[in-house]
Amino acid sequence: MAHSETERAIEGFRELIAAAPPASVVFFGGAGVSTESGIPDFRSPDGLYVQKYPYPAETMISRSFFDEHPSEFFDFYCNRMVFTDAEPNQAHRKLAELECEGTIRAVITQNIDGLHQAAGSKAVRELHGSVLRNYCMNCGMSYSADEVLTLHALDDDGIPRCPACAGIVKPDVVLYEEPLDERVLRASIEAIAQAGMLVVAGTSLAVYPAAGLIDYFRGSHLVIINRSPTPRDRQADLCIAANVGDVFDF
Questions:
Q1: Is 239 annotated as belonging to a binding site?
Q2: Where, residue-wise, is CATH 3.30.1600.10 in the chain?
Q3: Which residues participate in catalysis according to the annotation?
Q4: Which segments in the chain show pLDDT lower than 50?
Q5: Does domain 42-82+132-173 have CATH number 3.40.50.1980?
Q6: Long-range contacts made by residues 10-16, C-beta under 8 angstroms, separation at least 24?
């Protein structure tokens, strides 16, 4: 898509947002929504899947790897997946503004960084959990992301352990081999099914079951914003190959 075509597509998207009925727009976002906040995605040259570790990233963030190799898991997790100093970018801020104005019905995210809530969004469905929530697998005590990083640094093996009972502190994130939270999944499906407009942004739509949520959409306008093509582009009314933050800079 030429530069002028991209600009026209972005303008068309903004016109759709402006004309949308109240609470009719649902946003479904992936890693590309947070890259402009300095959080790496998965498949870019600096992404999580292109790392110099002895195991593939998909393996290192699986439940079986967590159970069998907790030290290696937390080395990868704490160094490559937790960014406590990250700040919301223009996309996060605009979505929160649109929710406050009554346009956005829900934000569904595959991200685990909590930046949508930090920007002010309330109706957020976190499909894959959040690094901001952590709990002791033994006694259930809750810990913040900063506390987990501190416990990781203090332990000889790099395994965050509960000071109260020495149990392992697990992040409240959905690892590979783990199911999605049924309540979050149902709420996401309901929001998409009731949406008049679905905006899919910053995701390759390659990871299931999350990518399959688009099948529940029965509304009028499907918009896909992603720098590279997705398997669902042919279904979209509008495809925009641009940074998500640039598209939401209005």
A1: no
A2: 42-82+132-173
A3: 128
A4: 1
A5: no
A6: 10/240, 10/242, 10/246, 10/247, 12/238, 13/199, 13/223, 13/225, 13/238, 13/240, 13/247, 14/250, 16/197, 16/221, 16/223, 16/238
